[in-house]
Amino acid sequence: MTTTPIAAVDLFASALLIHPDGDVRAGERRMASGDSGAWQIATFHVETDADVHGDHWEMHPEADEAVCCLTGGVRVYFRPAEPGGTEDMVRLREGTAVIVPRGRWHRLELDAPSDLMSITLRHGTRLERRTGTH
């Protein structure tokens, strides 16, 4: 039996961390790699592209990521698979999500201030500054 206190968790202040043994805890949101082996469910209110590190590509090598738009609108761009190719883009509206395949570089740009949720295993997450027309 768990000893986790039964209480509301502010999803905009904390993340839910789902551990391999099935334990779920509220914890610190991390954008970079975490070593706990836990999946992270994190919710963010974002106002500008800077809030979603729009000038960076992001990649999660060990798991897919669900990017969910709860309110507002966001575009999720995928780096071309081949040099010289074009970016793929998925537009998310309120109540929609996209699954980003593991190992796929992606970035976000906002259509409007939004509430977003991401669900992924952050271990090994990499960020790379976007340059030119990558």
Classify the fold: give the CATH topology. Jelly Rolls
Q: How many structural domains in the coordinates?
A: 1
Per DSSP, the total helix count is: 0
- Which structural class should the secondary elements be placed in? mainly beta
In the CATH hierarchy, what is the class?
Answer: Mainly Beta
Shape: globular
Please summarize the sheet with the most strands.
7 strands, antiparallel
Helix content: under 10%
Q: Tell me, rounded to a whole number, the average pLDDT.
A: 90
Low-pLDDT stretches are none
Which radius of gyration do the C-alpha atoms yield?
A: 15 Å
Question: Which terms would index this structure?
Answer:
134 residues, mainly beta, Jelly Rolls, seven-stranded antiparallel beta sheet, two-stranded antiparallel ribbon, 0% helix, globular
Describe this structure in words.
- The protein has 134 residues and is an all-beta fold.
- It has a single domain (15-129), classed as Jelly Rolls (Sandwich).
- Helices cover 0% and strands 49% of the residues.
- It has no helices and nine strands.
- The strands form two sheets. Strands 1, 2, 3, 5, 6, 7 and 8 form a seven-stranded antiparallel sheet that branches. A two-stranded antiparallel sheet has the order 4-9.
- The radius of gyration is 15 Å and the shape is globular.
- The model has no long low-confidence stretch (mean pLDDT 90).
